[in-house]
Design goal:
CATH topology: TIM Barrel
Number of strands: 11
Strand order of the largest sheet: 9-8-7-6-3-2-1-11-10
Radius of gyration: 27 Å
Number of helices: 14
Enzyme class: hydrolase
Strand content: 5-15%
CATH superfamily: Glycosidases
Membrane topology: Single-pass type II membrane protein
Protein name: Glycoprotein endo-alpha-1,2-mannosidase
Order of helices and strands: HHHHEHHHEHEHEEEHEHEHEEHEH
Distance between the termini: 87 Å
Subcellular location: Golgi apparatus membrane
Shape: globular
CATH class: Alpha Beta
Structural class: alpha/beta
Helix content: 25-40%
CATH architecture: Alpha-Beta Barrel
Family: Belongs to the glycosyl hydrolase 99 family.
Length: about 475
């Protein structure tokens, strides 16, 4: 009996030790799992980052926004004049140091240029809504115009867009918004921001001047290792003389910033680049005054020489662009078939024309197009996103012609539904906004990153 008791005691001790070791093993597994950080997901099902990084990013964004709002509300004296210092303070208080950002984000591709708009405003930062309250534009034929609604949009629930931003009806002056935009563009592996620009004191008919915002955008771009070039809009009285003065202004004021973009040419020069929107409205003879060596207002071989990229819409424009002295052409529109330039099947012949005339050809790709929130009669130009397939088709067509640069229309042109910025599902009383479902709000950023890497690899093969 004593022997049996001793055996049972030893058995119980052994069982307790085994159980204790098992519990310790489980605990160590749990602790290890808790400390793991998910790697950035490659592109694939279900398109992009997992839930935890998405929630973490939103939390950081909300914290940054609250900090930014507190600073702005505490200073009632200044608005535009204090904007730069507010942005600098926000950057200093940023939660992620630069070296950590470099580790987390895709490397920038300086041959991917993305069109960016800083014309949005809201009451908190601008005293009123700007651009989100865009008017409904009437059709030029009064008979057709009478069949469609009139008036303006009424933010924040009703905005001039068919999609709704994850950041809401934001202000382009909000430092936390600028930071979020830079992070999104960098995560998409774009490298150059083509900033929509009007001269000081000027704006589009629905906006306010935004030149004062350029230093802030440059500072944030620098933080994310992005570069900024200028997309010059068709301002009033734009001609050879005003363009000379405005190019001089931009280079004198911003050319010394480390985020100011300069493109390395085939001759080894590093030159600024300017996209010229609606360049075709000015006759070639006027452009030639500015852009040819013998022109009366020539900018060539001066400290303000640069690469000037014209917008090609119709086929005949290619000859005008060459005669004008431009350095290249881009197609801008994200509507395959809308214009000669935006039609993918014409890109090969346009690239051949550019190659034979020492011009750059920069095709513009976009995720889709819909502008019926501001042009309710323009359904025929809508291009469905097809869950990202339209965007990928455009990239595929662009890569076929082996361009030196690809431009993306756009990061945030919400009015025309070409944005790749994060959008979220939203339903109001009478409006149901489009969204990116079944994918996440960052699906088009992920697609851009995917094609940026593909372009990089293919470009290496072209150069071999």
């Amino acid at each position: 009996w004593i022997l049996n008791y001793d055996i049972m005691a030893r058995f119980r001790r052994r069982t307790c030790i085994i159980l204790l070791l098992f519990i310790l093993f489980i605990c160590s597994i749990m602790m290890a799992l808790k400390t793991l950080r998910p790697d950035r997901a490659g592109f694939g099902d279900p398109f992009g980052l997992g839930l935890l990084p998405e929630l973490q990013q939103r939390t950081v964004l909300l914290n940054n926004k609250q900090n930014s709002l507190n600073r702005v509300q505490g200073d009632t004296v200044t608005r535009v004049s204090s904007l730069h210092s507010i942005a600098v303070n926000t950057m200093k208080a940023s939660m992620s140091p630069v070296d950590k950002l470099e580790e987390e984000l895709s490397s920038p591709n300086y041959n991917f240029h993305i069109f960016y708009y800083s014309w949005f405003g809201n009451p908190q930062f601008d005293g009123k809504y700007i651009h989100w309250n865009h008017p409904l534009l009437p059709h030029w034929d009064p008979k057709i115009a009478n069949n469609y609604p009139k008036g303006r949009h009424n933010p924040p629930e009703d905005i001039g867009a068919n999609f709704y931003p994850e950041l809401g009806s934001y202000s382009s002056k909000d430092p936390s918004v600028i930071e979020a935009h830079m992070k999104q563009m960098r995560s998409a592996s774009t490298g150059v921001i083509a900033l929509s620009w009007y001269p000081p004191g000027m704006a589009d008919e629905n906006g306010e001047p935004t030149d004062d915002l350029v230093p802030v955008i440059l500072d944030y771009a620098q933080k994310y290792n992005l570069k900024v070039t200028f997309h010059i809009e068709p301002y009033k009285d734009r001609d050879d003389r005003s363009m000379y003065h405005n190019v001089k202004y931009i280079i004198d004021k911003y050319g010394g910033h480390s985020a100011f973009y300069r493109h390395k040419t085939s001759t080894g020069r590093f030159l600024p680049m300017f996209y010229i929107y609606d360049s075709y409205v000015t006759i070639p003879e006027i452009w030639a005054n500015l852009l040819t060596v013998s022109g009366s207002q020539t900018i060539r071989n001066t400290p303000y020489d640069a690469l000037f990229i014209a917008l090609l819409v119709e086929e005949r424009h290619k000859h005008d662009i060459h005669r004008s002295g431009f350095d290249g052409m881009y197609t801008y529109f994200a509507t395959n078939g809308f214009s000669y330039g935006s039609s993918h099947h014409n890109w090969a012949s346009l690239k051949a024309f550019c190659d034979s005339n020492n011009l750059m050809f920069i095709p513009s790709v976009g995720p889709g197009y819909i502008d019926t929130s501001i042009r309710p009669w323009n359904n025929h130009n809508t291009r469905n996103r097809v869950n990202g397939k339209y965007y990928e088709t455009a990239f595929s067509a662009a890569l076929l012609v082996r361009p030196e640069i690809i431009s993306i229309t756009s990061f945030n042109e919400w009015h025309e539904g070409t944005q790749i910025e994060k959008a979220v599902p939203k339903r109001t009383g009478q409006v149901v906004y489009l969204d990116y479902k079944p994918h996440k709000p960052n699906v088009y950023l992920e697609l851009t990153q995917k094609w940026s890497e593909k372009y990089r690899k293919e470009q290496e093969q072209w150069l071999m």
